[in-house]
Design goal:
The chain is of the alpha+beta class and about 200 residues long. The protein is built from eight helices and five strands, in the order αααααααβββββα.
Length: about 200
């Protein structure tokens, strides 16, 4: 997915949706310029829904079509908590798991790691960033790739990374184990998934 100027997009959305805009430099720049980094919404319900949709897209680096497909499949299934299911689908993407584990420092890098065939899921090479991992899955870096510069410092990241509680990261063995489903906690998110669901229900 092509992305335009990240500072301008983050300013428009009122959220630090890119790794680049989560730095102290961006926060200081935002304060100097006088705009928010914690949330700016449209004046109408529709405007708010559009902004929240864009926040989710840029946060996870997915296209409008991918997000639409996620939401519409959830709506069709008539799940009682569609927001929680949407969060689960977004978090269980393989590229997201690679990022959350610390194997990658940016979402773009995580996607590249997957598409270039560096990762295995349950022993099978997987090159699809949107692949949905599930409880019990074991994600590993291919043995032949572990000595490459890309992964050279991963063993030393154990003390610096705090992965989410639903995955276990074994840095020494380049292994990520999915322990549970991601837990939806709306107050901890920089976007409102309820507004996203409502946007696609129109």
């Amino acid at each position: 997915m092509k992305v335009g100027p990240k500072y301008k997009i983050a300013k428009r959305l009122g959220a630090a949706v890119f790794e680049k805009t989560q730095s102290q430099k961006f926060i200081l720049r935002a304060e100097k310029k006088g705009y928010s980094t914690t949330g700016v919404h449209g004046k109408t319900n529709f405007g708010t829904q559009v902004l929240e949709k864009q926040k989710v897209r840029y946060t996870y680096g997915i296209s409008a079509t991918q997000l639409s497909n996620y939401v519409k499949s959830i709506v069709r299934s008539k799940i009682k908590q569609p927001e929680a299911k949407l969060f689960e689908l977004l978090e269980r993407r393989l590229d997201n798991v690679v990022l959350r584990s610390g194997l990658a420092t940016t979402r773009f890098q995580a996607r590249q790691i997957v598409t270039h065939g560096h990762m295995k899921v349950n022993g099978k090479k997987t090159t699809v960033p949107s692949f949905q991992v599930k409880k019990g899955d074991v994600v590993t870096v291919k043995e032949s790739n572990r000595n490459k510069p890309l992964f050279a410092t991963f063993k030393d990241k154990e003390k610096d990374m705090t992965p989410p509680s639903w995955i276990n990261v074994d840095n020494k063995n380049y292994t990520i184990t999915v322990l549970a489903d991601p837990q939806y906690k709306p107050t901890e998110l920089a976007f409102n998934l309820g507004n996203v669901v409502q946007f696609y229900k129109r």
